[in-house]
Amino acid sequence: MSQPPLSQSIQRLEAELGVTLLERSRRKVELTRAGKIFLEEARRTLRQADLARAMTQRAGQPIPDVRVSFIGPALYHVLPSLIVKFRSAVPDVHVRLFEHPSSRQVEGLQHGEFDVGFVTAATDRTDEFDSFIVERSRIVAAVPANGPFAEHTSVALNELAQQPFITPPQRYSIYSKDMLEMFKAVGVMPQVTQEATQTNTAISLVAAGLGCSLVPATAAVAHVRNVKYLPIIDDTVRTVAELAMIWLPKHVSERGKSFIELVRAQVDESQPPQDLDTLL
Question: In angstroms, rounded to a whole number, what is the distance separating the alpha carbons of residues 95 and 117?
Fold first, then answer.
């Protein structure tokens, strides 16, 4: 009587390897020590083959992504935590980040370059945009730690107006206009000696002793050496920086919609949006 095909295959394999894989008796069949090692390695090889197949198939397909544009202050607190939560919820979707001034983000969103943008809330935009506030942060003075305000615990705008001042270019930033309006409200104007498009750049210039600037209180989390952050004592028209997430519904991808819903849920949990004065 001929042996079953499986038994024949095992015997051929044993002959090829030169070892016994199965211990056979009338009552049972057991793996030998060599058989156990071979089985484990065979399973490992099959798992690796499955992984190689999946990775190869994935490499031939476009990686799904969500395109997020932002201004620098979004990185201080709100955006990193949102990205962590999104990647945990949707690990297969890549978050592509683009840092731009608010006005440039509006243009990009209108042309479908981004799914969502994090901008200064007061940024000019048409009614077709949807948006909501994601963060409120008090506007504070960033000053050189070893400069004229080294011993101060707060500062007035008329004191800042007597020092070299760093501001974003007005043509790029609604935030620059807000800064100047704050000074106008107390009857003074700053001595603008340097323009800086990004908040991080302005803070670096302050650290170098080139002047003072106004920034969101969230900037304090960066802990830049030789920069001190002081509350402003003037009761002016605008002392809070609001960060908004905006998007154009007609240009949002399905992944973008998922990102929006996650951000909305996060903001709803902490309503009203957190005012981050405590970072000073």
Answer: 13
